[in-house]
Amino acid sequence: MAVERERNWDSGCAMNTKHPETKCESPATAKWREIPSVDELLQRPALASLTTRMGRPLVVEATRQVLHDVRIRMAQGLHDRVSVEALELEILRASDAAAEFSLRPVINATGVILHTNLGRAPLSRRAIEHIAEVAGRYSNLEYDLDVGARGKRDVHTDRLFARWAGAERTLVVNNNAAAVYLALNTLAEAGEVIVSRGELIEIGGSFRIPEICAKSGAALREVGTTNRTRIGDYAAAVNERTRALLRVHPSNFRVVGFTERPRLDDLVALAREKHLPLIEDLGSGCLLDLAPFGIAGEPPVGESIKAGVDVVTFSGDKMLGGPQAGLLAGRKEPLDRIRKNPLFRAFRVDKLTIAALEATLLLYLEENFRAIPALRMIRLTTDEIEPRAAKLSQRIRTLPSFEAELAPGESVVGGGSTPGQSLPTRLIAVTHATLSARQLEAALRRNIPRVISRVERDRVVLDLRTVFEDQDEALALAFERLGHGENRSG
Ligand SMILES: *Cc1c(COP(=O)(O)O)cnc(C)c1O
Question: How far is the CA of 389 from the centre of ligand 1 (A)?
Answer without folding.
Answer: 33
